[in-house]
Amino acid sequence: MLTSALLIPLSAVLLGILYSFNQESKVSFFEICAQGFKRLAPFLVLALLSALIIALGLCFLIIPGVFLAMRYGLPIAVSVFENKKGFEALARSKVLAEKHYFFLLKSYAVCVGAVFVAFLFISFLPA
Question: How many angstroms separate the Cα of 41 from the Cα of each of 38, 68, 80, 85?
Answer without folding.
Answer: 7, 23, 13, 11
